[in-house]
Amino acid sequence: MNNPPVIGVLALQGDVREHLIALASADAVARPVRRPEELAEVDALVIPGGESTTMSKLAVLFGMLEPLRERVRAGMPVYGTCAGMIMLADKILDGREDQETLGGVDMIVRRNAFGRQNESFEAKIEFAGIEGDPVEGVFIRAPWVESVGASAEVLATYDGHTVAVRQGNVLATSFHPELTGDERVHAYFVDMVRASA
Predict the structure, then answer these.
(1) Which residues are designated catalytic?
(2) What is the 3-state secondary structure (H, E, C) of the chain?
(3) Nearest-angstrom CA–CA distance, 111 and 101
(4) pTM over 0.90
(5) Which of 93, 104, 17, 19 is nearest to 52 (CA)?
(6) Which of 22, 26, 95, 175 has its Cβ near the most Cβ atoms within 10 Å?
(7) What does the pLDDT look like over 162-177, one tens digit per residue?
(8) Which residues, at least 6 apart from 121, have a Cβ–Cβ distance to it below 8 Å?
């Protein structure tokens, strides 16, 4: 892929603008995605942080849930942060009974595992595949991964808990790299998108 990849950011809820900026800094063409026809025009997708139950309801409301599931199943590269990680999990602990996920990563994720909003924190994270200093992770009502299946690869842990995973073309982090000004996780994802083309 010689041209910059076109990467959408699911713009139903959450910190969309910050992801658009980080992706553009990592040499991708970034655009918001709200409708199935916009999803059809992108090479890859970022699912931002926000509130996972609200996001799943809005995905149903906007007619996006099934198109998203189909693209993930078909191998479209996807990166989910925080609520996006929850959306990409095959199973959720502490979720609502009516909560829908897209699946894509053989992992069990616990919602709000690191505590409430007022317990948010930043931490330095050693991230496999990213050179240089540790990545700065911003954790806001963040989930963690309770367990991963054989096909998922753990890329980072914090305090004994898995906080970044990859399975094929799907990447997920508990934390928000888009809030730090460090674009290396987005650049890692853009490289994944280029490699999958």
Answers:
(1) 82, 176, 178
(2) CCCCCEEEEECCCCCHHHHHHHHHHCCCEEEEECCHHHHCCCCEEEECCCCHHHHHHHHHHCCCHHHHHHHHHCCCCEEEECHHHHHHEEEEECCCCCCCCCCCEEEEEECCCCCCHHHCEEEEECCCCCCCCCEEEEECCCCEEEEECCCCEEEEEECCEEEEEEECCEEEECCCHHHCCCCHHHHHHHHHHHHHC
(3) 13
(4) yes
(5) 93
(6) 175
(7) 999 999 999 999 999 9
(8) 114, 139
